[in-house]
Design goal:
The complex is a heterodimer.
Chain A (H helix, E strand, L loop, with lengths): L2 H24 L3 H17 L10 H20 L8 H15 L9 H6 L3 H12 L4 H8 L3 H28 L2
Helix pairs in contact in A: 1-2, 1-3, 1-4, 2-3, 3-4, 6-8, 7-8
Chain B lengths: L2 H11 L5 H13 L1 H33 L18 H17 L5 H14 L3 E7 L18 E5 L3 E7 L5 E6 L4 E4 L5 E4 L21 H11 E8 L4 E8 L8 E6 L6 E7 L11 E7 L20 E3 L1
Parallel strand pairs in B: 6-12
Antiparallel strand pairs in B: 1-2, 1-11, 2-3, 3-4, 4-5, 5-6, 7-8, 8-9, 9-10, 10-11
Classes of the chains: A mainly alpha, B alpha+beta.
Chain lengths: 174, 311
């Protein structure tokens, strides 16, 4: 592997969590997210020779991701759920800022996930593995969509609380 | 943050937000950078959660569906204790141990399969477009649907595609250089390793399956893998699901003979559409007869009077 390729791979690996989340915020559906993220990865590597190393890599990669999101919607001939450009500007800045912040609590997500009860885990599976919306999940488990949506919200709250408290406990440990 | 805003964000994450709430969310994000960062953190949790769940499911598929009772000591824990590359390697080694169906250790198992991939003889495949719609034909490039694909050893190949009027466009690699024999005009030769390889299934995405050995290594490193056996046809199945952020089709399913390593069928699903071609296609084995010694050289596929241009 050449030095530029190695450098591009290293920078992309570091930027990946932020770029992935940015794409997820723009594109509903995990399969679509994966496709756009993949096209972004290809575009980043293909155009790496145009990257100015004096600029933050994440911001540059998010610019490419933004363009790939736009192409994705153009291919689908639809623009539903797409934020206005001004909102996207705010979000790009927000993801760049968040990428500079260390978030060790995310490393604890697996542990917290394992502590969920079976019902919550099944809801997570239906939502995230099968990529079902609350209405479709509700049909499968005999609940209305609103109840499912509330349950998913509570699960994410619990996971966030769990990660935060575990991270805090880890910090005060001698 | 107000409860209503929290609910709106969650509705957005679960793709069930109303048009009015979307406007409210946009206004809230634009109200302050801190709001935008809060939204970004919520999405990051949502995104990480999706990856974690899908990784966990992948691990479970191996431990639940593939392990035989006598092999329980090799079962992967229900809760993943490893992540990323290490977990993938564990899964691959476990699966290889299972399909080899003997007492070789896992490390020997992977070496054995990789060794088998380089010892394979000639193989002939046909390519089938699995999309519900036919490929768009631009008049210049023949469709890949119905093409014949021949492979020898580690990296020699011939791909024969046909235009709707029956004219052939043949490309290949003889072990030294790539070549292209269009229906008209000059035959072209090139030592550029990527030249003329665009039509190969998976080539644009890093998985051309011409060099099976390197492609298996690529799959090991960049895909989440599960193994199982199909009792109906005694073939082993390797399902590779792409990790986020890497090149490649969304899924690759390989159906192969465990004892010989010969792949009977490769199914590529979710090929990116930005570069054209089918989104889903199958590459099916049609024969293993030994081909002519010169079959993978360009001269075999055109008249000796044709102009040949070395690039």
């Amino acid at each position: 592997m050449t030095d530029p390729a190695r450098q591009a791979t290293r920078l992309w690996t570091l930027a990946l969590p932020s770029v992935s989340a940015f794409v997820a915020s723009m594109v509903p559906g995990f399969a679509d997210r994966d496709d756009v993220l993949q096209e972004t990865a290809v575009a980043v590597i293909d155009s790496f020779d145009r990257y100015d190393p004096n600029q933050p890599f994440v911001a540059w990669a998010l610019g490419i991701a933004r363009n790939q999101v736009r192409l994705h919607y153009r291919r689908l001939n639809r623009d539903q759920h797409l934020f206005e450009p001004a909102t996207v500007n705010f979000l790009v800045d927000a993801f760049v800022a968040e990428s500079a912040q260390s978030r060790p609590e995310f490393d604890l997500l697996g542990d917290c996930l394992a502590r969920l009860d079976m019902k919550s885990r099944e809801l997570c599976r239906l939502r995230y593995e099968l990529d079902l919306k609350p209405a479709a999940i509700g049909q499968k488990i005999g609940q209305n969509a609103n109840t499912v949506a509330k349950s998913l919200q509570r699960i994410r709250d619990r996971l966030r609380d769990c990660m935060t408290s575990k991270a805090a406990a880890a910090q005060i440990r001698p | 943050m107000e409860i209503q805003m929290k609910e709106i964000i969650n509705d957005y994450l679960d793709d069930c937000i109303s048009a009015n709430d979307l406007k409210t969310l946009q206004a809230w994000i634009e109200k302050s950078p801190e709001n935008a960062r809060h939204f970004a953190r919520e999405v990051m949790l949502h995104d990480r959660l999706a990856n974690a769940i899908r990784n966990e499911i992948s691990l479970k598929q191996v431990s639940v569906s593939s392990l035989k009772p006598e092999n329980k000591k090799f079962a992967i824990p229900r809760r993943p204790v490893l992540s990323g590359m290490a977990a993938t390697l564990v899964i691959l080694l476990t699966g290889l141990w299972l399909i080899s169906n003997n007492r070789l250790d896992a490390a020997a198992g992977i070496n054995q399969l990789i060794q088998k991939s380089t010892d394979l003889g000639d193989r002939s495949y046909t390519i089938v477009n699995l999309d519900t719609q036919a490929e768009k034909f631009d008049g210049r490039r023949p469709p890949v649907d119905g093409a014949k694909f021949y492979v020898r050893g580690g990296n020699q190949y011939v791909l024969i595609r046909k235009f709707p009027d029956g004219r052939q466009f043949t490309t290949g690699f003889d072990g030294v250089q790539n070549w292209a024999v269009p229906p008209d005009g000059a035959v072209r030769l090139s030592r550029d390793p990527n030249r003329f390889r665009g039509p190969l299934p998976g080539h644009k995405h890093g998985l051309p399956f011409v060099d099976l050995r390197s492609d298996l290594i690529e799959i090991r490193d960049a895909f989440q893998i599960s193994f199982s056996e199909d009792k109906s046809d005694r073939l082993s199945r390797l399902l590779a699901r792409k990790k986020p952020g890497v090149r490649g089709p969304r899924e690759v399913l390989l159906r192969f003979e465990a004892d010989t390593g010969v792949i009977q069928e490769m199914i590529f699903s979710g090929l990116p559409q930005a570069q054209g071609g089918p989104s889903n296609l199958a590459v099916r084995l049609i024969g293993q007869e030994t081909l002519d010694p010169g079959f993978f050289e360009h001269q075999f596929h055109h008249e000796s009077t044709r102009e040949v241009v070395q690039e």
